[in-house]
Amino acid sequence: MQTFEQLSKIFAAHFDRRHFPSEPASLYDAGQYFLDLEGKRIRPVMCLMGNELFNEIHPDVYEVATAIELFHNFSLIHDDIMDNAPLRRGKQTVHEKFGHATALLAGDMMLVTAYDHLNKVHPGYIRSIIDLFNQTAREVCEGQQLDMDFEKKQVHLNEYLHMIELKTSVLIAASLRLGAILGGAGEGNQRHLYEFGKCLGTAFQVQDDYLDAFGDPSKFGKQVGGDIRSNKKTFLLIKALESATGFNAKELSRLLNENPDDKVERVLQIFRDCGVDNWAFNLKEQYMTTAERHLEEIAVLSSRKAPLNELAAYLIKREH
Amino acid sequence: MQTFEQLSKIFAAHFDRRHFPSEPASLYDAGQYFLDLEGKRIRPVMCLMGNELFNEIHPDVYEVATAIELFHNFSLIHDDIMDNAPLRRGKQTVHEKFGHATALLAGDMMLVTAYDHLNKVHPGYIRSIIDLFNQTAREVCEGQQLDMDFEKKQVHLNEYLHMIELKTSVLIAASLRLGAILGGAGEGNQRHLYEFGKCLGTAFQVQDDYLDAFGDPSKFGKQVGGDIRSNKKTFLLIKALESATGFNAKELSRLLNENPDDKVERVLQIFRDCGVDNWAFNLKEQYMTTAERHLEEIAVLSSRKAPLNELAAYLIKREH
Asked: Which CATH superfamily is domain B187-320 in?
């Protein structure tokens, strides 16, 4: 059993290379540029972890993990176009550096390249691997569409949660499960691992929203209140819009419309008045508890689960 | 053996239906809208023809043909975004009707859906099917990128020809060959069929360029000279830029820059002076002759080739 860090190094040795032909450079260099920005590669490493939970590393898992990382990067390139984002990982986005049309095409060919890798998987596994990969890809597209739809309308907490699951959680869940499929895991074990990943992904998103508002700036690594300043829909804001009444409801609506200088402090105060801070903290805890329950249910020796437990603890700081 | 028209009806019976889930409608209705514009479905029907050339129709060929048509529509939706095209098949493009972000996502999910269908192919064929499909998808992306690159620079005829092969011809060639793979065709037969399709595709593009300039408006179905008016790079213009000298060279350059009212007539006169009209006509003939030679080389009874010969004759009007 290897830790996340050990498996990260092994994956990097496979992945950190030129992925595309040299010509036309105008297309392929744009794609390679984005891969060279070096994300944390959490998803493909989770695929390796899902595999090693059940068995020795299967050689095909590197192909599946590579497909997952290419898919993730494809979706980021296209999301950045849709969101008109200038920066990603502190560098220019692909459309900023190479133009919208090339960014669109670079994403397309990256998705096609993901399937090149899936197509190298042993024929006995390929159908179930592509099935889950495709279901997930479709859900990620649905999540992005819902996210855009939600910008224009009032959203209930359940709808928002569903969107986050599609946009964020299912890819983490599927990464683990795709590895488990290649590890020969049974259906029940696969399902528990998938739910573990899904709850972990949602807990992480709740935590991210929480820290953006209530995090310690010295530990959080970025200025707090960014989501509030940009009126970004988060778990906190949606819960506050649902639960604020009277003066707080009117004041929140005014702050969102008028963007005064003291907006962050005032919104945070309303969050506290409505108990949204404790609510979010507890929501994260609930998801983590459910995640842990699913991990416990997986029928392998507990010692094999240690790396996943460590990763969960690393991703989600629990304070109880 | 069935004709193109007969196979078109059979394919339509499989394809003309709702392809996507109902929700989120904001995403899936955009994709379905484009499919409902009803193209000519030439590529998937050629896939059926490539299959029937060698054998009884294989049931999996409908999955492959569906994947091809979904891929083609995906590439059109994204090309329309890149080209900023307002109309397709006389109707609003997806980005015009549903917005750029949704059009981008609708294309993405359509590409993913294409792989759903490929993933239903019998395990004995799936790897070679996805290999050729992916190689083709990558080449179509390369062709689109080169097309955009060529807008900004001087292009030699060989480069332009290469771009057209990637953007247009290889998908027609691959459609035939994907059918042939499922028909159990040997490597040599597959290669001749592929080259037949590639030459046919290029001949069709040369003819399209020729007719836009020299076609009989009453037969061509659209106003002639559209390509000239918009300075579109075509076989004719690139050949003229390469071969015009002296006054004609200067005049052509002036006409492209100044767009005078009599631009079409004057450019056509330069085309005639340089012999570009006869050259293009002969180029089309050469490609058709090569296409026919490859079709002849395929080792099946000549009678099985009749539908492909008829289709070629229908697509390319030969006047000799």
From this structure: Farnesyl Diphosphate Synthase (1.10.600.10)
- Whether residue B123 and residue A119 make contact (CB cut-off 8 A), yes or no, is no
d(CA A255, CA A266): 8
Q: Residue A148: pLDDT above 70?
A: yes
Q: Are the C-beta atoms of residues B116 and B93 closer than 8 Å to each other?
A: no
CATH homologous superfamily of A186-320: Farnesyl Diphosphate Synthase (1.10.600.10)
Min distance B119 CA to chain A CA atoms (Å): 6
At residue B318 the predicted structure's pLDDT band, cuts being 50, 70 and 90, is low
Model confidence over A229-277: pLDDT tens digits? 999 999 999 999 999 999 999 999 999 999 999 999 999 999 999 999 9
Closest-CA distance, B231 to chain A, in angstroms, reads 20
pLDDT at residue A222, as a whole number: 66
- Give the separation between CA B236 and CA B269, rounded to whole angstroms: 12
Task: Indicate whether A319 pLDDT > 60.
Answer: no
A151 reaches B (C-beta below 8 A): no
Q: How far apart are CA B29 and CA A46, in angstroms?
A: 34
DSSP-assigned letters across all residues of B200-242: HHHHHHHHHHHHHHHS-HHHHSS-TTHHHHTT---HHHHHHHH
Domain boundaries, chain A: 1-185, 186-320
Q: Which residues of A touch B32 (CB under 8 A)?
A: none
Which residues of B are less than 8 Å from A113 in CB distance? 134, 138
The CATH number of the domain covering residues in B1-16+26-185: 1.10.600.10
Which ranges constitute the DSSP H helices of B84-225?
Answer: 94-98, 100-118, 123-150, 157-164, 170-182, 187-214, 217-220
From the list A37, A44, A144, the residue with the least C-alpha distance to A87 is: A37
B146 touches chain A (CB under 8 A): yes
CATH class of A1-185: mainly alpha
Chain A residues 49-108 with a CB less than 8 Å from chain B: 78, 81-82, 100-102, 104-105, 107-108
pLDDT of residue A320: 41
Q: Model pTM?
A: 0.96
Tell me the per-residue pLDDT of B20-50, one tens digit each, with 9 for 90 and over.
999 999 999 999 999 999 889 999 999 999 9
Residue B149 sits at the chain A interface (C-beta within 8 Å): yes
Query: Do residues B198 and B165 make contact, with C-beta atoms less than 8 angstroms apart?
Result: yes
Mean pLDDT of chain A: 95
Fold match, B1-16+26-185 / B187-320? yes
